Amino acid sequence: MTPACELSDLQQFRISSLPPDFYYIPNFLSVEEEASILQKIPAQRWVTLFRRRLQAHPSTLTKNNTLLGSPLPSYLVKPVVDRFEALQIFSHTPHKQPNHVLINEYKEGEGIMSHEDGNAYASVVATVSLGASICLEVAHKPAAMDREVSQQNAQTAGDSKLARDEVDRAGSESTISQYAVPARILQEPRSLLITTGPAYRDLLHGIDSVKVDEDLNPSTVANWDLLGDSTAFEKAGGRNERGTRISLTYRDVLKVSSAASKVLGGLGTR
Ligand SMILES: O=C(O)CCC(=O)C(=O)O
Ligand SMILES: [Fe+2]
């Protein structure tokens, strides 16, 4: 990506066969920038989970999904967040910039179960991939899960909001059914994947725990035409041998408590 890449350029990176909106930008970082970030990720911060390791910056959220506001470490800000600003990725979220980064590490054969990122965050996530390529699987939510979300909305926000959500949901479902889901997005090292809108709210995503992604070709990979180097996968017979892949997932947490309000006895969150 050239440093001058701007919002108007984002449309050319849209994955057009998928619901609005996924954007895939290959070579978002240079090889040198990737190496520099990788060597700054602190070794002592990892928490080992089932089939992956995780660290949260600046900290993990509280039980009620609140972030204790604090700056992100500078190696996660420069150059990545500056480039997000040029692309206006977070310009419509409450804090207008990411305030939280989850770093995931998957060794070969590891993955993450299909899930949604939920409503602790504004509905945009920007994922920088480092180290190795991996396939992200996207799928529709089972109907039961949609009902659960509607019930939670009814309990927390009242019936008029529920009615509004149902209208929104019906609208985006009819939009979504035109698209080729389930699907696979192939994420190369140094790429950026942006997930927003209905793609964030109405779909699940996960990574299969396999040592090799197989059968990679233009008809099985939704972002094939946007890949930085599709010939590498062609030459490998449509196979991607997994290595250790790290993802930086940038988000805007909605509820932030300032250090000052903690000092004053935790009065109020904002
Ligand atoms: O590593 C990825 O690309 C996905 C991670 C993810 O889904 C998450 O952290 O919520
Ligand atoms: Fe996720």
Automatic annotation (TrEMBL):
Molecular function GO labels: dioxygenase activity; metal ion binding
Intracellular or extracellular location(s): Nucleus
One GO CC term on file: nucleus
Gene3D superfamilies: Alpha-ketoglutarate-dependent dioxygenase AlkB-like
Keywords linked to the UniProt accession: Dioxygenase, Iron, Metal-binding, Nucleus, Oxidoreductase
Stretches for region Disordered: 147-174
Fe2OG dioxygenase domain mapped to chain residues: 97-254
Presence of keyword Transferase: no
UniProt keyword Nuclease present: no
Basic and acidic residues compositional bias, start-end: 161-171
Coiled-coil regions listed in the entry: none
Pfam families named among the record's database cross-references: 2OG-FeII_Oxy_2
Classification via PANTHER family: ALPHA-KETOGLUTARATE-DEPENDENT DIOXYGENASE ALKB HOMOLOG 6
Family: Belongs to the alkB family.
Protein name, per record: AlkB, alkylation repair protein 6
Organism this protein belongs to: Lophiostoma macrostomum CBS 122681
Biological classification of the source: Eukaryota, Fungi, Dikarya, Ascomycota, Pezizomycotina
